């Protein structure tokens, strides 16, 4: 057989693989075609794949153990809360007729026997009832269902940091008509430029949730030092103040823009000295209305009425002059400024509306009457005639009287038109005097402190209890225990700042507010010993006054 040459990249060559010519197109002979298809030539074939078993996988699988994620079986048990013994209970109110009949039979009353019993004891019961009706064993005694307090506690320490930064002092405190709001005035009672120094009136609502003791609910800026305050007796938002300049101002704390609603302004009737006390008094000409009364060291006691455009005008006036006090306090010259006697405090009798007591700078306490018709020395520029109200002078203190307070309880009628009413006075001599309205000499004089006494107040609920403010703190007295020394003395501040003012709360009778020279107001909660009136306490007060007078 002739050899066949294979192209390896020539013009007729492919990619290195020979292919047989198709019949009819290849010029070679059939012999040559058979020679090309022999076994020694190239051809396309399908070769089965080779399979090589993995020894590594079989060895590793032999070493592996069967694993599972299933947790072990959880054992459970059933338990019940049912008690061992059961009992049925029902709330159904219906009952059968038979049961109702049995019940009625059980509660049948022997009316014949009851009538016989009542007839037998009738005379004895009536006798005892008449005896109790005539008894005065529990006069003035009121049951107190509140918890008993054994100690006096400080509930709140209130202050206004901006006033304290200017070293201002608390000059006065007052409770509003509801007893829930306490107000204080800031000013100065010691040396200082009072006339130009700015001051404040601040209020706190003690019932308010989230009370901030150093953030008052209301702050009123006042251009002059405020010397005294008084809330209106029935309108909780109205408060009157007396200024160092001699003016009177009435604020409405419910107004957010301008709280001033009435003021005296600087007129001929305005006080020429600081106003040291202001009171709301009933208007005798208009029921359910109040007027303002002011007291000043210029010797005048003025009553003011409200007029249009927010102006306060003088309705009537009084003046304490030297001619009405004992010779030891009279002044030689009769000019108005020298003849007037400075008034520092005033207290009305609760039993005689026209009767009041004043304390004066000369050390005397004077009994006065609004019905007095004696004219005082004519003052300069007064729009109303001033009357001289003093009727009686009491034994003096060794220094100016700073505070007087009439008892809200004691009134003993001696004869027609005369009654014995007790009042307290205190002053710079450190003494507290207990006086009867009808006796010159004090019933007793208690040397309480070597420092000044600035304020004294009777308790509104205990006839034998009063409080005094001194240069050493707050002193509480219970005359049922001792007439010689305080029952409790309270330290108002760590710096021993003088306490200038205090007021009992007539609505929440356990509360007592006191203001000091450090600019803080402390609200004290009194113990039940000072707030619960015991049986026959009124009799005890009358007996105490009678024994001392005898």
UniProtKB/TrEMBL annotation:
GO CC annotation: ciliary plasm; cytoplasmic dynein complex
Tagged with keyword Cytoplasm: yes
One GO MF term: dynein heavy chain binding
Spans through the membrane: none
Keywords: Cytoplasm, Repeat, WD repeat
Region (Disordered): 1-49
Residue ranges, compositional bias (Gly residues): 7-17
GO BP of this protein: intraciliary transport
Name used for this protein in its record: WDR34 protein
Native species: Climacteris rufus (rufous treecreeper)
Name of encoding gene: Wdr34
